[in-house]
Amino acid sequence: MIKNYLYYDKELIEDNGLQYNDYGARMYDPVIGRWGVVDPLANLYYSWSPYNYTLNNPIKNIDPDGKIVGTVVGAVVGGIAGAVDAYVNDKDFASSIAEGATAGAIAGAVVDISVATGGGAAFVFGAAIAGGALGGAVGDVVGQTTNNVLNNNQSFNEALGNINQSQVGN
Fold it and tell me: Could you tell me how many helices (H) and strands (E) the chain has, helices first?
């Protein structure tokens, strides 16, 4: 039997003598190292090729479906901040890293979206504040859930049900 899932567990599609890896939103031709499908929202990034991935910077950016390019910087910085907080305040590392990374990723995504849609400086600043607040609240939930699952041996559903609402967003 031929294995159709190869590189990064992406399906290999062979059609009319051509081979493509199916990345969901894109078809990748590994022979020429190019994407064969225009991104669905390529018009948001008109100064870039409609066939590019992560604005040609896969170290800094993520682009899972071709609809928006986001930075991983927020998640990385948030995770590091969570680890430092855990060390300084003698907290659980896994929960603090999960909380910080989630908060940073959401805040970064909100800023990325506001920049991508052409927001001015005041709009981007306001989006950063809103994204930080939203990210902090969601990060609190993720941190508490992670702690409940890892340290209190609760199932995921139990852990979600045992969120301390008074600690969310504080």
Answer: 4, 6
160 and 80 assigned to the same domain: yes
E strand or H helix at 11, and its extent? strand 11-15
The CA R_g of the chain, rounded to the nearest whole Å, is 20
Establish if 45 belongs to a structural domain: yes
Structurally, the chain folds into a number of domains equal to 2
Closest Cα to residue 68, out of 43, 96, 99, 31? Answer: 43
Q: For residue 99, give its domain range.
A: 72-167
In angstroms, the CA 69 to CA 53 distance is: 8
Cβ proximity of 133 and 168 under 8 Å? no
CB-CB contact of 134 with 62 (8 Å): no
| Domain shared by 98 and 137, yes or no | yes
Dump pLDDT digits (tens) for 92-144. 888 888 888 888 888 887 777 777 666 777 877 787 788 778 888 888 888 88
To which H or E segment does residue 15 belong?
strand 11-15
Structure tokens at 2: 């031929």
| Among 128, 129, 82, 87, CA closest to 101 | 82
Using alpha carbons, select from 106, 116, 109 the residue that is nearest to residue 39.
Answer: 116
pTM for this model (two decimals): 0.57
84 in the same domain as 157: yes
